[in-house]
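Dear all,

This email documents one entry for the complex benchmark we are building for the journal club exercise. For each entry we list the sequence lines for every component of the assembly. Then comes the predicted three-dimensional structure of the complex as a token string, followed by one or two observations. Please use this as the template for your own entries, and keep the labels exactly as they appear.
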Amino acid sequence: MELQSPRSDETHGEHIHVVSPKVYLAILVILLIFTATTVAVSYVDLGVFNAVVALAIACIKMMLVVLFFMHIKYSTKLTKLTVVSGVFIFFTLISLTLADYISRAWGRW
Amino acid sequence: MSETASTTHGVLAGAQHEHPPYQRHHFSSVAQQFDASNFAMWLFLLTEIMFFGGLFTSYLIMRNWYYPAFVAGSHQLSIFLGTTMTAVLIISSFTMAMAVWCAETGRKRDLILSLSLTLLLGVVFLCLKGFEWHGEWVEYHVPGLRFSVENFVNPASDPQVFKEYHDKPLATDMAENVGQYFFLYFVMTGMHALHMIIGVSVLTFMILRARAGDYTSGHVTFVENFGLYWHFVDIVWIFLFPLLYLISRHS
């Protein structure tokens, strides 16, 4: 019997996909460019937008890592849904916590 | 484990099938086993998101309460050092992704090389982190153990930082709250570093197993799942870096 890597196994699940090193290299370059950008932007005074831009760039970098390095782009619907629902619950919990802090700690915000 | 190794179950009637030794008996195929463990790994990572999420939320709330203290604390960190650590970690994520590719395509020598590079970059990151922590210790910025408000009630006492930021002196009670910033800084970078130490340990174990040829004969699940863990730790740092080092530069 032939022993193949599961990602290239034709008989089970076409969803399994070997990501090529070219993709990984392109993502690495983009991630390093974004890192340089976020540092450069932090030297420009944008007021409150310094934090907004820094976090937006961090989110883009996270998306790139999750989609390509962590293969979510090529994974099953089950895994995609799991990740999305997990992140959704995470944001729900943060929002509820913040709603509580904003409405109770009068005068501290 | 040789290329042709397989396990046969022929004792019970109707249970006659072969499968590779790394496939657990209750899975009908290697692909099914791969999907199941991959799914479980993601569930574990979601619990990790919740764990670090709690820390990030407390940072958000504390930074809003003690804003001037958090700004003064953040000005103590070196953006150059932070950027270097970020680059090191991102490159290590790339070498880890390459390790997964090497395992999938059966390149044993390159797999060992990729894993070793990942290990090396992980250790470099930890050394830089240790160097930074040592700096905090020397400067009396470790709350509870070795902390002084001197640099914050009298910013000119720290000429290097003062030259760059011209911070205004903080009142003593606000200066005490810089301790809150450094407390969260040590907890967050400390928990991150603990994950790195665990990762580096597992990498050492994986390199030994890769040398024995364990991952290049079809069994890539472990490499893939460890890759997910390593990239997750990278993502945590991708958020820690702007929050701790960058966003307070102009405040």
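Observations: Residues 30-65 of chain B form the longest helix (36 residues). The first strand of chain B starts at residue 7 and ends at 9.
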